[in-house]
Structures are given as structure tokens and as C-alpha cells.
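Researcher: We plan to redesign the surface later, but first we want a full-length starting point. C-alpha cells attached.
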């Protein structure tokens, strides 16, 4: 029985050693690192100079995306920023007119006080001119506050446009 067992094993070994030249000499698993490349901006792909399996160097330019829309958006933001700056009020010019009116009212008050001392003006005239000076000074304070708020608002809007344009500049 032992002899038949060994004879059977030898015949299995001989049958499995068949010479077939069409098969592979080796087999195995090949692994490769897959790298996904993203564009830094969105747009239509203009150029792509890359072949599958090519060796790349760090920072190598392999393609380009049409950035015309981003460029136009940046120009639009820059123009909007310039428009805001142009709308900025002339604070000094507007306040100089108000200062002249106040100065003129103060001169009238001094004149009325001199006339009052000589008996040519009444106390009511002095009180009216004094009230007019106080009202002009109050109007000037209000105008200063309004102008400062307007300038601050326009500056903040201009800065927002500038930052958006800067963001686009560094995205392409």
C-alpha cells in the first residue's frame, strides 16, 4: 500500500510539471502612488502638457486654466473701489463754508453788542444773533459727524473691494 501511495504522488508531481511556454514567468501585485492634481482656480482648461506615466518635478508647470474671467472680476472690483474713493466727500471744503458762516455770525454778534452799548440795538437782537451762532455751531458738529461716518463707510467699502481684488490676484 505504501508503494502505491508513493507511485501516486510521483505521477501527480510529473503531471503538474507540464511545460507551457505561453504562461507568465512571474506574478505579483504592482503598487503605485496615485496623485490627484487640483487646479488652483476654476475655469476652462487651456493647456495640459502631461502624458500618463511621466516623471514630474516639484513645481513643474503641466497645464493652464483660462483665467480671463478672474482677471475681469479683478478689474471690476478695482473699478468699484476707485468709484467709492471718488465719492468720498471733500470734508475740508464743506466745513470751510460752515466755518465762514459761523465767523460771520460772531462778527455780527460783536457788532450788535457794540450797538447795544450805545443804545442802538436791543437785547433781543443780541439774543437772536447768539442763538444763530449756537445753531450754526450745532449744525457744524452734526455735519462733521455725518461726514466722518460717510468717509468711514466709504473707506470700509473700498477696503473690502481691495481685499477681494487681492484675493483674486493671488488665486491665479
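Model: Full-length starting sequence:
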Amino acid at each position: 500500500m505504501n508503494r502505491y501511495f508513493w507511485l501516486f504522488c510521483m505521477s501527480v508531481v510529473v503531471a503538474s510539471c507540464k511545460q507551457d511556454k505561453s504562461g507568465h514567468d512571474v506574478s505579483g501585485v504592482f503598487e503605485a502612488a496615485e496623485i490627484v492634481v487640483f487646479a488652483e482656480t476654476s475655469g476652462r482648461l487651456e493647456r495640459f502638457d502631461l502624458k500618463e506615466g511621466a516623471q514630474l518635478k516639484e513645481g513643474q508647470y503641466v497645464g493652464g486654466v483660462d483665467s480671463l474671467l478672474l482677471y475681469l472680476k479683478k478689474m471690476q472690483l478695482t473699478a468699484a473701489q476707485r468709484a467709492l474713493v471718488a465719492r468720498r466727500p471733500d470734508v475740508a471744503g464743506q466745513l470751510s463754508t460752515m466755518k465762514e458762516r459761523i465767523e460771520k455770525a460772531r462778527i455780527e454778534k460783536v457788532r450788535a453788542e457794540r450797538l447795544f452799548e450805545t443804545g442802538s440795538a436791543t437785547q433781543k437782537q443780541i439774543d437772536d444773533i447768539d442763538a444763530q451762532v449756537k445753531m450754526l455751531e450745532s449744525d457744524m458738529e452734526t455735519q462733521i459727524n455725518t461726514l466722518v461716518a460717510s468717509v468711514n463707510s466709504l473707506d470700509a467699502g473700498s477696503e473690502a473691494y481691495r481685499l477681494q481684488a487681492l484675493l483674486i490676484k493671488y488665486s491665479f
